[in-house]
Each structure stands twice: as structure tokens, then as C-alpha cells.
Write a structure and sequence with these properties.
With 588 residues, the protein is of the alpha/beta class. Among the domains are: 84 residues, Arginyl tRNA synthetase N-terminal domain (Gyrase A, domain 2, 2-Layer Sandwich), CATH 3.30.1360; 95 residues, no CATH class; 140 residues, Isoleucyl-tRNA Synthetase, Domain 1. Helix content is 52%, strand content 10%. Strands 1-2-4-3 form a 4-stranded antiparallel sheet. The protein has a 4-stranded parallel sheet with strand order 6-5-10-11, with helices on both faces. The chain has a 3-stranded antiparallel sheet with strand order 7-8-9. A hairpin with a 3-residue loop joins strand 3 and strand 4. Helix 4 crosses helix 21 and helix 19 packs antiparallel against helix 20. The protein is globular.
Length: 588
């Protein structure tokens, strides 16, 4: 469906043209003064210089041609040259009914679908997820859903940290503790056990213990580095241990991400890129893209237009070791071979922006990805506590993600138990659903690039700009619709009629913004714009609800129109929260 602002703009363009002015001046926007008008055009002021005419005179000329407008009910030329418009009630209702009949609620799909990879997650295996992983998971999942909703082929990739020194540390510590295992017997030629020699709990204790010891014990550190070298060069026993680490870790990661309603299409990691590194480096050296600088192999990425220095992208240290830049470039080689993406979006801490500038430039300069492939960096800010510092436990340590989720669910359970007489099982399940909305909406309602304060009390409130408030609004609508059908009334085939009251029309005007918001939010990869929209929509509904006797309306046609508007409002809200990665319970 065409956006309603575009339909108005088409009419306005004809009026500009008929009055002797350029059609391009007919740009329509939502009014920032809804008390004066609903839509606005400032084209008369933009054209004043070209036509050597006062803006108000141009506006008046245009307004004269809109007397029999199909969409505009009231139009006025206002000093110094604004064109203020109000929409015809019957056209507004017709547009809403058309949305209701459309499976996508009027949001247009991409005419030329693209293959897009969203790189988000990035946890290291053998370590528990902590709050530092929250933003990448939440923002990345929402971005993936938004792009997919617009009709593109989307692959979400977790890009695991599953290679390097940390693996050498775990292998070395395991060898110290369980040296009699066959993985460490160089003469062993049989089948290795299928079961891992450790649980996830043991694994999460092994790594920090090994890391701490390596900092104090030089010989131990050298052994871990040698174990890393042997693993990366195909040591049979160490490779088997690595597979156990991966299986145990990934199983635990999937469980934790499932609790966040986050899932990945690809479970690739740094290890998957290793096979591409030797040939890639050889080509870059052979074709003159990479050169030695102070012992390291680098690619120059500075451009003439740069206003500050962009250091070279380092792809090999002086000792021959690879770096993150090496792995990221090799991952692009692998993605180009396997998927040929049109675009890749990296959802990463904004402090890594320089690294990705270097990688993106190196990838384009060397032909690792085609020039037309779009590489986008979506950097996010820090999640802080009320003290303005990175979020910690009460004891000052890094909080595990599963503990944060449990704390939020407990808080919601207390509030739900205080407010209603639900059984414990239902209250717990509802607390889980509402708690997830508190976490996700609390994050996504902020612009991704900005730091924000994770305020448990505010985020779990049923009032204000919060996830629970949005869900409470949806549940309120569900309750009204359930009561309407108790008398065997049907919800099918109902139509919205022209609005009679101010709050009814305000709700209708919010609802028709849906496809415009979807388009803008998806183009800009901006989930916070969806949050802002549904908060406004929820507020508009609640004002309408408090000012209107919906179920006791005696005029049956008016009542059916109200119910039709509620059905559409609920669908829009549910569509939006699905993009944000959570859902609404049946009751709260």
C-alpha cells in the first residue's frame, strides 16, 4: 500500500503544478502541531526564491486548487507560507480498512529483495554470557527481524569467539587436572570418547583458573601458547577436546539465547575462517596489497579525504600470528564464497568502529568483497547502572545474563502477584513474558549508539514508556474484544467508520503511520523508532479508551467501528513487538 502521506502528496503535487509551480515542492510531513493540523507542507517557502514570490502567495495559489480534494477535508495557507491540512474522516477510515485486509498491514515489501547477513552475538565459547552480551543480542535480533519483514533474505550469524589462546589455556588446564585422558596420550590411536570430559559448569571454572595462572606462571603460559599452536596445526587429541568444548558451550549458549527469544541461522565462528587465511594472505602479498611494516604484515587503508589518520589494517603479527582483522577478512572471504551477500550488517560495540573501518576498507580495496556489497557498522553504546558506570552485580562483579533475566522475572512476578489472583504457574509464565519485554524494550527504546542506564524499577513499571505498559495496553484490548464476543458477537468483517470524537480520530491517525514507520525504521536500522511509535499508539488508544464507552455504546454501527479499530490497533502493536523480539500474554 502507498503511505497515506504519499497519497496526500500526490494530490498536492497536482495542485502545485496546476498553479504553475514545480511538483517537487509538494512534500508532505506529519504536523508537529496536531492542535492546528494533521499534515503540513512547507513547499511554498522552499519555492519562494525560485519564483520571486512571497511564500504565503504561493501557498494561497496552491490551496485554491484543493477545494475538491479527495483526501483533504480542510486546508489553509498560514503565515509565513505553511499549508496546513486535515484528512477526510471517511478516507482515513477507508485506509484503515484496507490495512486491516492486508496481511502485512499495508507495509510494502522490497521490490528487489537482497541477501543480507546480520553479524551479532559474538560471545566467546567456554565462558558464560554476561550483561555485556545483551545489547548485541537484542539489537541484532530486532534488526534481523525488521529486515526480514521487509522481504529480504536474511541470515543471522552469531560469529563465535571459538579459536585462539583461550582454547590453549583450557586444554593446558584440563591436561593438568586429567592428564590420563586419551586426548593427551600421543601414542593413542583409538576412537576418542563421545561424551565431553567436563560439564558446562566445570568448563566455566576451568577457563578463568587457567587465565589467572598464566598471568603468574610464565612456564604455564608458554605451555598454553604451545597447545594453541598444536591445536591450530591439527593436533588430533586437542582437536577432539576443542570439539567437546564447542558442543558443550554451544548447547549452553542456545539455551541462554532461547531465554532471550534470540536465534541464529548460522552458528559460525572464528574457527570457520581459519582455512581461508593462508591463501588470502598469500594473494594479498602476491598482488601487492599487503606489505611489511615494522615486522608486521599490513594493508594501507588511509584515503585522501580522511581528516584524521586511519592506521593500516594489520593482518599478521611479526611472529606470524593472526589477529582479529585477519579473521574478519577471512570470514568475508568465506561469506562471499558461500552466500554472496548484497549487504552485511555488523552489530558491535561502538568502541570497535575504527577496527571495522579498517576491515571494510581493506575488504573493498583488495576485492575480498565486490565494490557494490554494502558493509554496515551498527555500533551500540554501553549499558550502565544507575551510577553511570557499566552495569555490575551488587558485589561489583560482572553479572551473568541468566541472573539478570531471573532478577527481572522475579521482580515482575512480585508485581503480578500483588495485582491479581492468578495461580503461581500462570503468574510465573506471565512474569517471564513481561520480564522479557521489560529487558528488551528498556534497551531498544534507546537509540542504539547511545549509552543508557538500565533501571530495573523503571523498566518493570506498568506506567510510562516501558515494555510492561505496552503489553498492558495489548492485554486491555484483548480483554475488551473477549467481552465483546461473550454475547456471541463476531470479530470478523467489521469495518472502521469515520471518526466522531477527537480521541477516536487521534487513534486512527496514529494507526495509519504504521507503514511509514516500518519503512523508516528498517532503512535506518532503528528499532527505537518502532518503540517510539508504539508508545504513541498505546497512549492514543488509552486516551480513547478512557474517553469512550466502547462496549456500552448503544449505536451498534458505532460500536462495531470501535471494535474494528481496536482489532487493527492490537494487530499493529503485536506486529511491532514481534519485531522487537517479545510477545504479549493473554492477561496480566
Amino acid at each position: 500500500m502507498k503511505k497515506i502521506v504519499d497519497l496526500i502528496a500526490e494530490e498536492l503535487a497536482g495542485a502545485f503544478e496546476n498553479a504553475g509551480y514545480d511538483r517537487s515542492l509538494a512534500r508532505v510531513t506529519l504536523s508537529n502541531r496536531p492542535d492546528l493540523c494533521e499534515y503540513q507542507c512547507n513547499g511554498a517557502m522552499a519555492g519562494a526564491k525560485a519564483y520571486k514570490k512571497a511564500p504565503l502567495m504561493i501557498a494561497e495559489d496552491v490551496v485554491k486548487g484543493l477545494s475538491d480534494s479527495e483526501y483533504i477535508e480542510d486546508v489553509q495557507a498560514v503565515k509565513p507560507g505553511f499549508i496546513n491540512m486535515k484528512l477526510r474522516k471517511e478516507k482515513l477510515a477507508a485506509y484503515l480498512n484496507e490495512m486491516q485486509e492486508d496481511e502485512s498491514l499495508g507495509a510494502e515489501k522490497a521490490k528487489e529483495p537482497r541477501t543480507i547477513i546480520v553479524d551479532y552475538g559474538g560471545p566467546n565459547v567456554a565462558k558464560p554470557l554476561h550483561v555485556g552480551h545483551l545489547r548485541s543480542a537484542i539489537i541484532g535480533e530486532s534488526v534481523k527481524r525488521m529486515i526480514r519483514r521487509m522481504g529480504h533474505q536474511v541470515l543471522g550469524d552469531i560469529h563465535l569467539g571459538d579459536w585462539g589462546y583461550q582454547m590453549g589455556l583450557i586444554i593446558t588446564e584440563l591436561k593438568e587436572r586429567k592428564g590420563d585422558l586419551p586426548y593427551f596420550d600421543e601414542a593413542y590411536e583409538g576412537e576418542y570418547p563421545k561424551e565431553a570430559p567436563f560439564t558446562i559448569g566445570e568448563l566455566e571454572e576451568i577457563y578463568p583458573a587457567a587465565s589467572a595462572r598464566a598471568k603468574e606462571d610464565a612456564a604455564y603460559r608458554e605451555e598454553a601458547l604451545h597447545a594453541t599452536y598444536l591445536l591450530q596445526n591439527g593436533h588430533r587429541g586437542y582437536t577432539a577436546v576443542w570439539r567437546h568444548i564447542m558442543n558443550v558451550s554451544v548447547s549452553d549458549l542456545k539455551k541462554n539465547y532461547r531465554n532471550l527469544n534470540v536465534d541464529f541461522d548460522l552458528w559460525k565462528g572464528e574457527a570457520d575462517a581459519q582455512e581461508f587465511i593462508p591463501d588470502m594472505i598469500e594473494r594479498l602479498k602476491r598482488e601487492g596489497y599487503a606489505h611489511v611494516d615494522d615486522g608486521a604484515l599490513v594493508i594501507d587503508v588511509q584515503e585522501e579525504s580522511d581528516t584524521k589518520e586511519i592506521p593500516p589494517c594489520m593482518i599478521q603479527k611479526s611472529d606470524g600470528a593472526s589477529l582479529y582483522g585477519t579473521t574478519d577478512l577471512a570470514t568475508l572471504v568465506q561469506r562471499e564464497r558461500d552466500y554472496k551477500p548484497d549487504e552485511i550488517v555488523y552489530v558491535v560495540d561502538k568502541r570497535q568502529e575504527l577496527h571495522f573501518v579498517q576491515v571494510f576498507r581493506a575488504a573493498k580495496k583488495t576485492g575480498i568483497v565486490p565494490e557494490e556489497t554494502k558493509l554496515r557498522f551498527l555500533g551500540f553504546g554501553t549499558m550502565n547502572g544507575k551510577d553511570g558506570k557499566p552495569f555490575k552485580t551488587r558485589e561489583g562483579g560482572i553479572m551473568r545474563l541468566e541472573n539478570l533475566i531471573a532478577d527481572i522475572e522475579d521482580e515482575m512476578y512480585k508485581k503480578i502477584s500483588d495485582n491479581r489472583t492468578a495461580g503461581e504457574e500462570e503468574a510465573r509464565q506471565t512474569a517471564k513474558i513481561v520480564g522479557l519485554s521489560a529487558i528488551k524494550y528498556g534497551d531498544l527504546s534507546n537509540q542504539a549508539a547511545k549509552d543508557y542506564v538500565f533501571d530495573v524499577d523503571r523498566f518493570t513499571s506498568f506506567e510510562g514508556n516501558t515494555g510492561p505498559y505496552i503489553l498492558y495496553t495489548i492485554v486491555r484490548i484483548k480483554s475488551i474484544l473477549n467481552k465483546y464476543t461473550e454475547d456471541e458477537a463476531s470479530l470478523s468483517g467489521l469495518k472502521v467508520k469515520g471518526a466522531e470524537g477527537e480521541s477516536e480520530k487521534a487513534l486512527m491517525l496514529e494507526a495509519v503511520k504504521y507503514n511509514e514507520v516500518m519503512e523508516t525504521a528498517c532503512e535506518e536500522l532503528a528499532p527505537h523508532k518502532i518503540c517510539a511509535y508504539i508508545y504513541d499508539l498505546a497512549n492514543a488508544f488509552n486516551r480513547f479508551y478512557h474517553e469512550t464507552k466502547i462496549l456500552t455504546e448503544e449505536n451498534e454501527e458505532r460500536k462495531e467501528s470501535y471494535i474494528a479499530l481496536l482489532i487493527l490497533t492490537k494487530r499493529i502493536l503485536e506486529s511491532c513487538i514481534d519485531l522487537l523480539g517479545f510477545e504479549a500474554p493473554e492477561r496480566m
